[in-house]
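HUMAN: Now follow token order:
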Amino acid sequence: MLIISRSYLVDGPKNELQANIENDAVTVPLIGSVSFMPTTKAEAVAASLALARRQGKNKFITLSNVWCVALAEMDSRYREVLASASYTFADGRPITWLMNSIGRKTSQIRGADYFLEVLSLSAQTGLRHAFLGSTEEDLSKMLTRIQVEIPSLVIGGTWAPPFQEISESFIVEVVEFIDKSKPDIVWIGMGTPKQDFLAYELSHRRPVLSIGVGAVFSFMAGKNREAPVVIQKMGMEWLFRLFQEPRRLAKRYLIGNSMFIVIAFKTLWFYLKSDSNFTKRITIFLSKYSRRQK
């Protein structure tokens, strides 16, 4: 179990999450080797906006799911990146089930919902945004939608770079884009783990909050469909996406889901041995969950 240090504190008005961190009241359990922040969506959004307002470097947020947990087990470099994040929010229903079952009340922070909420609230404060990744067509369609739904949003720039691996020359180009667009928040839609590696690098080079959001740009542009709410609640959004992109996602879900099942059992076994109230708590959680499904 990891206790959050005070270095995670952000400036600005404190929400409940920040107040709990300051009082050393928040513990961040390890799911595999990833430390997820137990939080509601409202708390996550408020903490993100406060972090964006904070001066200085070393600011990035990851929205991590089952695949991220599996990758962190296989790749020590990626594990170190996630460990360095300002916040890691649970963007995956299985993660939230596991967090809640061990007594850490957590809401799913779905990328698309979180993205729109942060944009909407930041429009009231004048925070400036940049969008990096996907394709020019997707970015254009997404911006058209954003300008209709959030007309007061301040947009510094967009860029859909050609597909390439993370290299020093590419990072330099991205830094130049950041310098020109001058955002408070840069949204990176390049997929996992590439977007998180890039966010980590940017956090050390410029005082901008970097957030990886995966396929959110494509969802916003209408290129890919989001799973119906009922499928999201069942934790089967991954299967919906698999039917949309079987060639790209089959290996990812086969490996990631299999590894996560093992990690989940190890996590539950750890808490079963170390917490005398764990059995009672997980029984209550399963009872509440079964009632919600009826």
Notes: Confidence is low (pLDDT under 50) at residues 1-16, 21-25. The longest helix spans residues 246-274. The chain is about 55% helix and 15% strand. The radius of gyration is 19 Å.
